[in-house]
Amino acid sequence: MNVHVLVPAAGSGSRLSGDIRKQYLELGDQPVLVRTLARLAALPQVTAIHLIVPEEDVAFCRSDLVEHYQLDKIGAVIVGGDERQDSVRNGLEACGAASQDVILVHDGVRPFFPQEQIGPLVQLAAIEGAALLAIPAQDTIKEVFDGRVRSTLDRRLLWQVQTPQAFRCDRIREAHRRAHAGGYTGTDDASLIEWCGWPVAVLPGHQYNIKITTPADLVLARALLECGEVSLT
Predict the structure, then answer these.
(1) Can you give the residue range of the structural domain that contains 35?
(2) CB of 52 within 8 A of CB of 78?
(3) Cα 230 from Cα 97, distance rounded (Å)
(4) How far apart are the C-alpha atoms of 135 and 152, rounded to whole Å?
(5) How confident is the model over 117-128, as pLDDT tens digits?
(6) pTM check: above 0.85
(7) Is residue 78 part of a domain?
């Protein structure tokens, strides 16, 4: 069984100001995306990493990121689609994984994922078909409609989902195929599995496995790094 990682990084980064996409902003002395890819490459479970980026960024990513930083295990730089779901589907079609291989889908702007959980996550996905990292919700969550609270949700049942998410290749390919044919768009890859009626197992994630999508996220990531709360190795 091989483990292929799909890293969708084709977003515009519109929630961060400036002309530089969020995945190319500096964290320490290297771009966020490079930090993420290097951390993935260090995992002994990972066979190949497939980077999915906008078409106009393919040459830049190959030369200025993969080659310049001598990143290991990069199998391909793949052109993304209009939406994240399209990008992952493109990656599934191009990565060359076998049916029983495990696919990890990981956000390119999550450089602090818990490395110790990846082995168990892969094994759980191989058995269950799908597994993800998540942490229990800390805040009270209310359902709001038309500016008014409709209900207060039971926090004990609510978890904040993270990546990597892991899938047996045949299952996630079929889920994407069905979703594409049925015109269904999910909020993450696991939601496509759920839409198909298949189970998704959950493993504990980590509070520092943040997704860098806003200026505040970038400030937090840099602060965590500077104070030694997280490591990039």
Answers:
(1) 3-134+161-226
(2) yes
(3) 32
(4) 19
(5) 999 999 999 999
(6) yes
(7) yes
